[in-house]
Design brief:
Shape: globular
Helix content: 25-40%
Strand content: 25-35%
Bound molecules: shikimate-3-phosphate
CATH architecture of the largest domain: Alpha-beta prism
CATH topology of the largest domain: UDP-n-acetylglucosamine1-carboxyvinyl-transferase, Chain
Number of helices: 13
Length: 445
């Protein structure tokens, strides 16, 4: 397993491109596979997670050719999928498993989907329950406190439902129900207490489906058909976030990240950093295939602590570990409320943040399901931290957070178990090398 050794740097500078958005790449493959004819995708994220979705659709009989970040999908359409031979394997990818459950619920055949150890520990009841409510026969692996993968799905003959997401605003839940809704009789709607990322809705509309959005409620009419269109995937703002935070914290930094997706349901990281007095500007804003994108210019600044309310969490759900690092470099306390979802991500990210802070001897006043409290400091200059030896817990975002902390520390850092970075950002190290002096990063096998 690859380890990364990081030396501290004074600043970050340069212009970079981050790879394609993971959420949009998954959805491009899914909707392309459910549309009759040929769909061309450019800017695709060729990462382990997105390739799981590709391989599953190939197993379901869809012809998908991936050449780097270009993908050509040729499908028989909504009713053209074939019963798979053998299990469908989602690896570490929660988006693959949860969105596929929605698709499989609409199929008139039986399939079994599973994942790696981490994915088989993540809650699936939030998806299986509403899909059962629509008429699918689903049997998951039931343990004391819920339902997990492997899951067997016998789909078909679905009816629309009105689903209210009361406990968690999750784009994966919403998307699974909407995808099943494509196959259902009548209307299917999902109401969220706070709006989660809306890439599925945008792409469904772009492909011509009968979909209505009314604030936090989305409704779709089933039994329509989709029309294939070319999709251009923007850069992933969740990947850009690591560079935004490092460049904000390290004095004298100036980094431009080109062509990043700035869909308002994803720009929580920009809003939070701006509230913290980060110096961030958007340039060259444009919208292609229904998804806004822009170049993001970040200059260093002295950050200030803030309070983040639970309603903001869906817009920053994947960025909280790196926001916690920004908060440690800020003047004054930061409180992030309503963070319980972090316990059921690729790792228990609350524990992972607590461990990282411990290894780097950074203070954390509270790290419970209710809130994260990061004291920051009162000086005009950020405090310094020693380098550390840490482990990713097999979680890509924790590995990248540890590496960024290593750049900002005062001694050498080693991060173990970093192969997981390939799930979302395979060329992270190469891009990091573009904005840091030679010799900063060493990869050890
Ligand atoms: C995703 C939704 C989020 C996010 C995940 C990707 C998606 O999960 O954490 O990385 O593509 O729909 P939840 O919907 O469970 O919050």
């Amino acid at each position: 397993m690859r380890s990364i050794i990081v030396k501290p740097v004074n600043k970050l500078s340069g212009t970079i491109c981050v790879p394609g958005d993971k959420s949009i790449s998954h959805r491009a493959v899914i909707l392309g596979s459910l549309t009759k004819g040929t769909t061309r995708v450019t800017g695709f994220l060729e990462s382990e997670d997105c390739m799981r979705t590709v391989k599953i659709f190939r197993q379901l009989g869809v012809d998908i050719v991936v050449s780097g970040n270009e993908v050509v999908i040729t499908s028989g359409g909504l009713h053209g999928l074939k019963e798979p031979k053998g299990d469908l394997y989602a690896g570490n990818s929660g988006t693959t498993m949860r969105l596929m459950l929605g698709v499989l619920a609409g199929q008139k055949f039986t399939s079994r989907i599973t994942g790696d150890d981490s994915l088989c520990k993540r809650p699936m009841q939030r998806i299986t329950e509403p899909l059962r409510g629509m008429g699918a026969k689903i049997t998951g692996t039931v343990k004391n406190d819920g339902e997990y993968a492997p899951i067997v799905v016998s789909g078909g003959d679905l009816s629309g439902i009105d689903h209210k997401s009361v406990l968690v605003a999750s784009a994966q839940v919403k998307s699974a129900i909407l995808l099943a809704g494509l196959y259902a009789k009548g209307e299917t709607s999902v109401l969220e207490f706070s709006k989660s990322r809306d890439h599925t809705e945008r792409m469904l509309k772009y492909f011509g489906s009968d979909l209505k959005v009314d604030e936090n409620k989305v409704s779709i009419n089933g039994e329509g058909h989709l029309m294939s269109k070319d999709i251009v995937v923007p850069g992933d703002i969740s990947s850009a976030a690591f560079f935004m935070v490092a460049a904000s914290c390290l004095e004298g930094s100036e980094v431009t990240i080109k062509n990043v997706g700035v869909n308002p349901t994803r720009t929580g990281i920009i809003d939070v950093m701006k509230d913290m007095k980060a110096n961030i500007e958007l340039k060259n804003e444009k919208t292609i295939s229904e998804e806004p994108r822009a170049d993001i210019l970040v200059k260093s600044s002295r950050l200030k602590g803030i309070t983040i309310e639970p309603s903001e969490i869906p817009r920053i759900i994947d960025e909280i570990p790196i926001i916690a690092v920004a908060a440690a470099f800020a003047q004054g306390e930061t409180i992030i409320k309503g963070v319980s979802e972090l316990k059921v991500k690729e790792s228990n990210r609350l524990m992972a943040i607590r461990d990282l802070f411990h290894y780097f001897e950074m203070r954390l006043n509270d790290c419970s399901s209710k809130r994260l409290v990061i004291p920051g400091d009162q000086d005009t200059k950020p405090k310094t931290f020693p380098g550390a030896v840490c482990n990713s817990l097999g979680d890509h975002r924790i590995a990248m957070t540890g590496i960024i902390m290593g750049l900002m520390a005062k001694g050498e850092t080693i991060v173990y178990d970093t192969d997981c970075i390939n799930t979302s950002f395979p060329n992270f190290i190469e891009i990091l090398k573009e904005v840091t002096p030679e010799g900063t990063i060493k990869v050890e096998k």
